[in-house]
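Example record for the data management plan.
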Amino acid sequence: MNANIKYIFLFLAFTFSGNLLLAQPGDLPSEEVEVIKDFEANLEESEKLVVEPALPPVDDSDKNLTYDIPLRTVKLDYLPPKIRPLALRKEKVGKSYNGFAKIGAGFPNSLYGELGYHFSDPDKYALTAALKHHQANFKQIENQRFSESGGRLNGDYYLDNGLAVGAYLGFQSDQLHYYGYNDEEITRSREQSKQHFNLFDIGAKVYNGERNQGDLNYEAGVNLYRLTDNYAAGETGIDIQLGATKWFADKHPLKLKLITDFTTYDDTIKQTLNNFYLQPSFTFHGNGFKIKGGVNLASHNDKFFYFPDVEVAVNIIGNQLAGFAGAKGDLQKNTLRSLSDYNPFVATFNRIQLENTSYYQYYGGLRGSLSILDYQVEGAYKDAKNLPLYLTDPTDTVKFLTIYDTVRIFTLKGTISARPIKGLELVATIGQNIYNLEKEDKPWHLPALEANFGVRYTTLEDKLTLKANAFIENGVPYRDLRGTVGNLNGLFDISVGAHYRFSKNFGAFVDVNNLANNKRQRWLNYPTYGINVLAGISARF
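Corresponding structural encoding:
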């Protein structure tokens, strides 16, 4: 079609030009022009000029460039985010209660009361108050009675800058009686046999209440107590603690703790026992294993002690079987407070000698979880210098003196806990100690075999709880004032109890202790209480 258009244009052009020629005057030729072929315009092929691009030469000379950038402070107005500690997802729980109360009475001649309440605002504060009282009078033996009363107030306040402040205030008033005499030959009034310990303690600390960007937890605190008894003996203790923990990858803690611990005991003379501790450690958690390396550096009277703080744990078969081994040590105080907690019949006025027990312990064992069963078996060797032992005071036969000896202790201990069915819990613990003493013949009043068994069952939609416990202990060795050496009778104590909730807020309980009416002597001439019953009501609100 393009060729036809071309011919049409040529035809019109020649026709128009012919008309123009005919109209020209003069002597132009009048011959006709015959078109032989179409005009074709062709250009001759030109020679291409090839230009190869090239980079300019590299300038490798050193040049120092100076930039003059004015400093400018840009103010950003924003609120820093509040970072909360990471936590596992919480399972749905039932309604919670802030307060509880428990009151009861029993045989022989006992009273029991307990009260507690918790106030809190998760973002601002938490406050807990608790009171407890228990007393009993077993009239079968003269002055075999006791009374224990105490209370405690704990609180924490969370500041907006991530800091938190914690404090506590407590008191404990324990009254007991030295009834370890033959009341058929000797009669003592209640006032003559009474011992009364009063303990007041207070403390405060500052710590980070929220997780910070550096994953650094820190704490600084001070604790103070004052203990007095019925015989004009008193003791004051104060310890200051500084600690920090740096977390790496959310699972490897680097810890550093500094402790200064001061104790002053006073009766007719004054004794002091001051210890200092520096405790650095690092724990690495790997895939199926844990390694902890640390040291406990302690000082007393310009004498330094270096105790290990190391442990290795390896999962052999997942969670079913794991092995662990480690070594640790410490400088442990023996004070009026610690000695009277262990033996309430210890002689106090002018009879207490403050000492440190320094020990090294090496241990290892196996632990794991098998479906419904958790278990742990452990063996240990402990080398303890100045371990307290207890013998009858020759100046007052109803009290005990504390003597010290170097003791090497081999221990084998096993623990099993199981939940075979819903609501049923079983626990069993048994331990055997073998003592090797440097000076004394026996570990006076220290048990060798201890075993505890417990069962707890909850049913009727958690309304009814049944429990039973068995406590077994060997007879401890003793030496009386005549030099007679022997073993006291052993402990075999079976106790049962039940708690039934009538409604969401009210319930009733009953505890029957020492069903076998075992009156073993834990301390020479001090038989324990036989069968006793305590029953009452409970409430939560």
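Summary line stored alongside the record: DSSP finds three helices and 26 strands in the chain.
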